[in-house]
Amino acid sequence: MNPELKARLDSLIQNNKIMVFMKGSKLMPQCGFSNNVVQIISTLGVPFETFDVLSDSEIRQGIKEYSDWPTIPQVYVNGQFVGGSDILIQMYQNGELQQMVEVALAS
After folding, report:
1. Does 31 count as an annotated binding residue?
2. Where are the domains of the chain?
3. What is the pLDDT of residue 65?
4. Is the bond preceding 73 in cis, omega lying within 30 degrees of 0?
5. What is the predicted pLDDT for the residue at 107?
6. Contact call for residues 84 and 20 (beta carbons, < 8 A)
7. For the segment 2-43, what is each residue's pLDDT rounded down to a tens digit?
8. CATH code for residues 3-100
9. Residue 84 contacts residue 69 (beta carbons within 8 Å)
């Protein structure tokens, strides 16, 4: 990964408490998995940002290398990679996601 791309990804992740790399936007998700993530985070009633990987092929490929995770969407909370749709569903169901988000927003 080139230094410019890493810097762009670092900036997006570090400057947003909750950052979602997804297909589409939070207002118009372009796949079911991305929609699941948007719905879960929206249920928490907290602010979050999204980046449409369909609009930038360099970030679409780069984020997979950055996180060492092969699929989209990817969720970051407080600068840390959390996972994708399945992991978010599981964390939401067992209460871990709510705790993680509360801690992130309080810091």
Report:
1. yes
2. 3-100
3. 96
4. yes
5. 80
6. no
7. 999 999 999 999 999 999 999 999 999 999 999 999 999 999
8. 3.40.30.10
9. yes
